[in-house]
Design goal:
The chain is mainly alpha-helical. It has helices at about 15-35, 50-65, 70-85, 85-100, 105-110, 120-125. Helices cover about 60% and strands about 0% of the residues.
């Protein structure tokens, strides 16, 4: 997979490339989880335990690279944990994410009809949270 990053107009293009490339790869890891059938799309099936663990590690690493001001990788890690039946871990992580950006509770609820979360996984992940006012 190739990556195209434009840095020629930056005062320090190599430093900017060094900053952007890990972020690009981190968001690639998030997208790789978000759009993989069986992993986050459709029924949760055909996911080997080793693959699940690898994807969860990829998302945790992506969260570190992306930084604390963008919790997207943690959001999708919570969704993946919920889909895998690891509801307590999902709920704990999602509580942190929703505390950071309360509107993500409504976003998560909107994912259920799209096939990202079934009712049980959504309920377990969000049960102790209230919709933001």
């Amino acid at each position: 997979m190739g990556v195209v990053l434009g840095v020629l107009d930056h005062p320090d293009p190599l430093a900017e490339l060094s900053r952007l490339l890990p972020r690009s790869r981190a968001f690639g890891a998030v997208g790789g989880v978000m759009f993989t059938r069986g992993l986050t799309l459709g029924p949760f099936e055909g996911v080997a335990p080793d693959e699940l663990d690898e994807r969860l590690r990829d998302l945790a690493s992506a969260a570190e690279v992306i930084g604390p001001d963008n919790r997207e990788a943690d959001f999708w890690r919570a969704v993946l944990l919920a889909r895998a039946g690891r509801h307590r871990e999902a709920a704990d992580l999602f509580a942190e994410v929703a505390a950071f950006r309360p509107a993500l509770l409504g976003f998560a609820k909107g994912l259920a009809p799209l096939g990202f979360l079934d009712r049980e996984a959504l309920a377990e992940m969000t049960a102790h949270l209230e919709e933001p006012a």
